[in-house]
Design goal:
The chain is mainly α. The chain has helices at 10-43, 45-53, 55-72, 74-82, 85-120, 128-140, 142-157, 162-185, 190-215, 230-262, 266-282, 284-302, 306-339, 348-362, 365-380, 384-404, 406-409, 411-414, 417-445. Helix 1 (10-43) packs parallel to helix 8 (162-185). The longest helix is centred in the first third of the chain and has 36 residues, at 85-120.
């Protein structure tokens, strides 16, 4: 069902929309967790490190696609909020065009560029072949990733955050079963985990597409909606490309840092990989709030309710800051326990590094919470370039650590890379949000 977020209590609307997103994010984590748990248990620490070493590369390529899908769907939410369903349908058709184009481009580019990119990152020689086997399969199946994220973004734009969740739960179960079958039974190696992920994502994407075609008549497209319009395409690209680039720019910082981490050996790579997976689970509620804010702000902008946008942002700033404190407690006292899903208890040195990394990061979860709220709000309001600048600030923070401190202080420096990046981003985001709101208020008053 659709959800109009332009009326009612903002806090209640955002949180009720956010709950399915949270479960969706958690089950999305199960894709990677299932891969890593089964790979780590059946194939050992090196295989686990090989999958983990591809994380930043995966974020760089797939993250761009995900950001683009989310961004090009924002005009749909704006038109839905404004009640302009004809324009909304044209935007939906152009989402299809743009996603087909980016699929062809990324698949072709990574067919030739995956192994050179892993070499450029100084991936340790003892894991590079397995890393390539895993990530190359993921990249060749990127069409499945884009299909799910495109259809899920369209559904969320009209207020349906539940349908993508239901299908994600189903596909997560399929993914776990296929992981066990391909890796544990048929011994396909790390590539088997990638096959499972691609198949599961394709399933969820096809189910979302079938739901759109069958259930939502307001998204039913006719021949006139498919007529290509540069104006419509540029409107979507104007939001989608900066959002995609924001992901990629952030990922470049992660890649730079990953390159520095790789020089510290496969043991450190395994520790960072496991800690990152634990952290992704802990911060999922904040990430879900961010995704909800993009839809909330987009719909209310379309309805011309700028004061309502401002109220919702204030309320969710408080909520996410409170959760950040809870997240610190979880990371401090339960982080290494969760990491045992990926790492054997005998690997005490790796577990010690995981605990240190999580503690240093969790101390700074409030700056991270602000990023999720304000960056996504700016994107929903159409200020994607501002959000992209925040990604550039994150890049600078991680590059400083990678080039200036990892060589001197090793793993200790790595632990402070994310906090520095988050603080740099907030120093830009908060003033940019204030400027954006003043501009929108003046526009509304004219």
């Amino acid at each position: 069902m659709t959800r109009d977020m332009t009326t009612g209590n903002p806090l209640k609307q955002i949180l009720s929309f956010c709950i399915p997103l949270l479960f969706g994010n958690l089950f999305q984590q199960f894709y990677n967790m299932a891969d890593s748990i089964i790979v780590g248990k059946f194939l050992g620490v090196n295989a686990f490190a090989a999958v983990g070493a591809t994380g930043s590369v995966n974020f760089f390529i797939v993250g761009f696609a995900l950001g683009l899908c989310s961004g090009i769907a924002i005009p749909i939410s704006q038109d839905f909020g404004a009640g302009d369903y004809e324009s909304m349908r044209r935007c939906t058709a152009h989402c299809v065009y743009l996603c087909i184009g980016i699929t062809v481009f990324l698949t072709t580019a990574m067919y030739f560029g995956t192994y050179p990119l892993l070499e450029l990152l100084q991936t340790p020689a003892d894991i590079i072949d397995e890393a390539f086997s895993y990530i190359f399969t993921i990249f060749m199946g990127i069409s499945a990733t884009i299909l799910y994220n495109m259809t899920a973004a369209i559904l969320r734009a009209i207020g349906d955050s539940r349908t993508p969740l239901y299908f994600l739960i189903l596909s997560s179960m399929v993914n776990i079963g296929l992981d066990y079958l391909f890796v544990g039974v048929w011994h396909f190696g790390v590539a088997g985990a990638a096959y499972a992920t691609v198949i599961a994502q394709a399933l969820s994407g096809l189910l979302c597409l079938a739901t759109i075609l069958k259930r939502y008549t307001l998204l039913r497209l006719e021949k006139r909606h498919w007529h290509f319009s540069f104006e419509c395409a540029l409107r979507e690209l104007g939001i989608g490309v900066p959002m995609g680039l924001q992901f990629s720019i952030t990922a470049i910082g992660s890649i730079t840092l990953q390159s520095a981490v790789n020089t510290l050996g496969s043991g450190v790579v395994a520790a960072i990989s496991a800690a990152a997976k634990v952290q992704n689970i802990i911060v999922s509620p904040m990430e879900s709030v961010g995704a909800a804010m993009a839809t909330y702000c987009g719909q209310n902008l379309g309805a011309g309710k700028i004061d309502r946008v401002r109220l919702g942002v204030r309320q969710m700033t408080v909520i996410t800051a409170l959760y950040a404190l809870a997240g610190f407690i979880i990371a401090k006292f339960a982080g290494t326990t969760v990491a045992l899903l990926f790492i054997d208890a005998q690997q005490t040195a790796i577990l010690g590094r995981i605990g240190q990394f999580l503690y240093c990061n969790a101390l700074n979860y409030i700056p991270l919470a602000l990023i999720f709220v304000y960056r996504n709000s700016l994107q929903g309001l159409g200020f994607s370039n501002a959000a992209m600048l925040a990604g550039l600030a994150e890049l600078i923070g991680r590059v400083i650590i990678a080039f200036c401190f990892v060589g001197l202080y090793g793993f200790d420096a790595v632990c402070f890379a994310n906090p520095l990046a988050w603080i740099f981003a907030d120093l830009l985001l908060l003033p940019l949000y204030a400027v954006a709101m003043r501009r929108l208020t003046r526009t509304q008053q004219r």
